[in-house]
Amino acid sequence: GAVVSQHPSRVICKSGTSVKIECRSLDFQATTMFWYRQFPKQSLMLMATSNEGSKATYEQGVEKDKFLINHASLTLSTLTVTSAHPEDSSFYICSARRDSSNQPQHFGDGTRLSIL
Amino acid sequence: AQSVTQPDIHITVSEGASLELRCNYSYGATPYLFWYVQSPGQGLQLLLKYFSGDTLVQGIKGFEAEFKRSQSSFNLRKPSVHWSDAAEYFCAVAPVIRTGGFKTIFGAGTRLFVKA
Description:
- The structure holds two protein chains of two kinds.
- Chain A is mainly β.
- Chain A has strands at 4-7, 10-13, 19-25, 32-38, 44-51, 57-58, 67-73, 76-81, 90-97, 106-107, 111-115.
- Chain A starts with a strand and ends with a strand.
- In chain B, strands 2, 5, 6, 10, 11 and 12 form a six-stranded mixed sheet that branches. A four-stranded antiparallel sheet of chain B has the order 3-9-8-7, with no helix packed on it. Chain B has a two-stranded antiparallel sheet with strand order 1-4.
- Chain B has strands spanning 3-5, 10-14, 19-21, 24-26, 32-38, 44-50, 56-58, 64-68, 73-78, 87-94, 105-106, 110-115.
- By secondary structure, chain B is mostly beta strands.
- In chain B, 0% of the residues lie in helices and 50% in strands.
- The A-B interface holds A 1, 4, 6, 32, 34, 41-44, 46, 49, 91, 93, 95, 99, 101-102, 104-110, 112 and B 32, 34, 36, 41-46, 49, 51, 90, 94, 96, 100-104, 106-109, 111.
């Protein structure tokens, strides 16, 4: 089956640090990738949708300058949390999809971000 | 607006007992339907999907789901639950929009507890 690799799995860093999370589709070309944030015991909140070679589309309420998304190739998207603060601590999950309306999303294993 | 409802926040079943997790959606046409499972601290794994055709779909790990158009439901079932099935289960809907892409909408999730 389709495999999506997300790295790192866990990050602990000081407030003010910028953190980059990578999402790779290992065995298929992902024209579209999604970034989610998940709070404890809650569902996934879509942050943004990124298409290869174009700017990401952010959901309402998500700060573009805070959460920088780059989708430079068909197998890699990155999320950079800039100048992270404790309130940015969360579980971030990426997913990737082939560009076809009948394809499901395949998810990475998530990144646990803890800002001290 | 499109929505997905999982009425049960959590369910407890005995190992070996049957399981049914409920999912209802609200959408003007038949959407694409998915069930995902999430183990603690991990990403989501696709269990099964429905696009069209046979309304009873088989998935991995012995799960199946039945699409009922008249009830706008897509309930997940398993005849005999194993302790390893304890996890969070998400129902998801993917309406096809005219731009050719779509966003997947996730339910709030149902946490499954399995008792010995």
